[in-house]
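[09:14] KT: can someone run the structure on this one? pasting the chain below
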Amino acid sequence: MDAAQDGFSPGPAPLHLSARRFRRGRWEDLPEVAAREEAVRVLHAGGSSSLWAWPHDLEDLALGHVLLDCAPRAGDEPGDAPVPLWTGRVERLDAPAGRHCLRVSFAGENEPGCGLSRPHRPDAASTAPRLSAAALLARMAEFFAAPGLWDGTGSFHRAALFHPEHGLLRVAEDIGRHNCLDRLAGFCARQGREPAAHALFISARITGSLYAKARRAGFTLLASRGAVTSAALTAARAQGVSLVGFCRPAEERLTVFCDELGRVTA
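[09:31] RB: done, structure tokens below
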């Protein structure tokens, strides 16, 4: 997988600065870098939201945020059903330096009596990817090896869409792990892709809140290099979602926490 295929581009350069480090009983001066994080204002029909994010490729972030965090849904439990991924329009507005403002709108939302068309969601069980444990480890190794920013600053999480036939389709990086999922949801909406047909790879542990967002996007197979919490596990078991944690190719191991439909094979 090359950078052009996964959509990665380096974006704004990190902030270079001088710092002091205390190590082994003594102080030393050293050059340091800090990841750029800037304010993002997202306007939508229901109001507005304030985010902090890596200031690059913000259209997918804004669209995904509105779809996953601002669209009406039944409740706020981790087991909420997926929201429809409407195709929206994202417009950049003028903002002061160091700040960004984007407006997200959907066809017909401002026309009297005209509601949003909700696209059909295919059955998740029939569209979810299936792959062997060995293949999952191999693909996760590609995910970690993909070009990115986390090695340079230590500040970034990353997430990716994996499709059995097409490989890693999109790698998203941001300082906030939830922002990574927003970016992938926005990408899916703009490209007309069904999240349930892809595995979600993520660098962060799968907590209840992260699971809830991934489920609202429609993912049914989640694989993380980190741990899985009880809240995520309880919700995943109730919804037939597959959770894989501690997926660490360098150690040649992974742990399947739940997988009632057998998406991870021998």
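[09:33] KT: thanks! Residues 1-7, 110-118 have pLDDT under 50 and may be disordered.
[09:34] RB: yep, looked fine to me
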